[in-house]
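Handoff note, outgoing to incoming analyst
You'll be picking up this chain. Sequence as last confirmed:
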Amino acid sequence: MTTTKNRKCKFCLKKPLSAIIKEVCDGWSLANHECFALQHADSSNFYITEKNRNEIKNGTILRLTTSPAQNAQQLHERIQSSSMDAKLEALKDLASLSRDVTFAQEFINLDGICLLTQMVESGTERYQKLQKIMKPCFGDMLSFTLTAFVELMDHGIVSWDTFSVAFIKKIASFVNKSAMDISILQRSLAILESMVLNSHDLYQKVAQEITIGQLIPHLQGTDQEIQTYTIAVINALFLKAPDERRQEMANILAQKQLRSIILTHVIRAQRAINNEMAHQLYVLQVLTFNLLEDRMMTKMDPQDQAQRDIIFELRRIAFDAESEPNNSSGSMEKRKSMYTRDYKKLGFINHVNPAMDFTQTPPGMLALDNMLYFAKHHQDAYIRIVLENSSREDKHECPFGRSSIELTKMLCEILKVGELPSETCNDFHPMFFTHDRSFEEFFCICIQLLNKTWKEMRATSEDFNKVMQVVKEQVMRALTTKPSSLDQFKSKLQNLSYTEILKIRQSERMNQEDFQSRPILELKEKIQPEILELIKQQRLNRLVEGTCFRKLNCRRRQDKFWYCRLSPNHKVLHYGDLEESPQGEVPHDSLQDKLPVADIKAVVTGKDCPHMKEKGALKQNKEVLELAFSILYDSNCQLNFIAPDKHEYCIWTDGLNALLGKDMMSELTRNDLDTLLSMEIKLRLLDLENIQIPDAPPPIPKEPSNYDFVYDCN
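Most recent structure output, in case you need it:
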């Protein structure tokens, strides 16, 4: 349905789009119908094309307007107007319309990108003299120009490799200026990030124009959006830097005290950290830890004297060896014997040549680096652990060397050292921003925990793997609380003693206890349909509440959101684009698009999703792949989703399957079913507490020999 001049007309969507437009034009006696087009009447103003016309639903309100080609031509001329007011208005319209890919294609065909870059390069100088008297107008003009540029490039029609050094220098100059309009600074940072991420050549040019020192001041402000864009640029430079350049860049970041600035002005600022900032902090955390990958994958060379000297230093610090004996043949044998004895005390597997312990990767040389750091920076704790265990004769000594190697490997697995950051993860840990050598300090806390847990378990060498499993559980449980500092992390671990872990395990085991007696199994079978119906209703209620989904693209910083929710009668899915992430539920009437549940043919997930087959970059990301699902409807139509997290993914796939009358197969449903079944059974068995339930019904007793015990009460 379309409306113009308050007149409403109904059209058959099976007709060609050009025929519908001609019919509308004829109704208002408009000539040259090819110069017109249909457009959504909502805030999106997107053009209707043969490609997207299938998305139009009955009752959708459309607007008759000039065609995208004609509109693009007019704006192309208007933005070159000599009138400042006319130019400003044209650039404002261009910034709005550029979000539409149909218009964008037409404007780009007119070499519009080139025109905008020329305006940025030379136009600013042209109006330099006007800045003092027209500063607000000039700032708005530049802001709209950059916004239009960002929106046009976001469609992926034009390659980033086509831009000149002059344009890069100009964008960089906006970032390097101490006082710059917020909107201009935002767009400039977004453009630099996209340049770095999408072109190797542009990375090198941007890296020459932008230094970390010039970006740091933007982190010291109070605008979280600017801080987020700034960290995004730093992450992009870090991510695309050649391997040999990354460590150098990390050293520069350390010199400029980036970590402490982020800690003070971002993490500990008196405001909540939004999702995008959390994501960028997570990316920075991952990239920083990935610097350890080289050492983690480097085997020790037993013939390398410098590396062997590190082991000698560990021995020297632990035992404070006396002056070396003379180099006579007899004293040489004595020295070898002494070294072997000391290496055994240090807990190495190979007592004769401990260098062989570090030939496994991971953790490679990273384990030895951690051991040396612990010995030098926490010398008292190091000496205490080594001497305490080397003096034990009851086979309960904790081997420091072997423990350190396995612990380093475990910590690398927990922090996923060497893996690329996820597109969707926001899981950063504030405590890793509180110390320049956070991984080494993390190790030092955990090796002391391992020694403490070993003693609490009264473990022997045969229990080594069991101890490591307990330590991993202790570390993982402490990390989930997101401690704000390493001291707080250490305090959390103090409360997670081996005894406490046993209590937690026992409690969880009781909560998840699987009663195997036949009466309990029969009871489970009887109440399971009720529980599944309860879970189904919860899933559908969550779909009725709705969820905000992010539109991921090649330039993640450009946040675009859309919302989807199920109607209360469970018959229609309402969805539509949003300008920003909503606070609470979004009303049905604000979501323009509808999809009847009856039209849904199937729900597909992961690699089977159309948008995962199209986007090669996302396809390679395992975590994004695990969050993707699509609704297939009509002939070749689909509604594509990328869930914000695994929980929402399970909620939506379960809910959609329930709507289609299919089983809910997610991991969340299995966990909920187990938990609710266990709780229901325990509630029903409360009166039977401490009474053993037999596996089989009790036998029927024999008839009594007489019935003398029966008497008449009357």
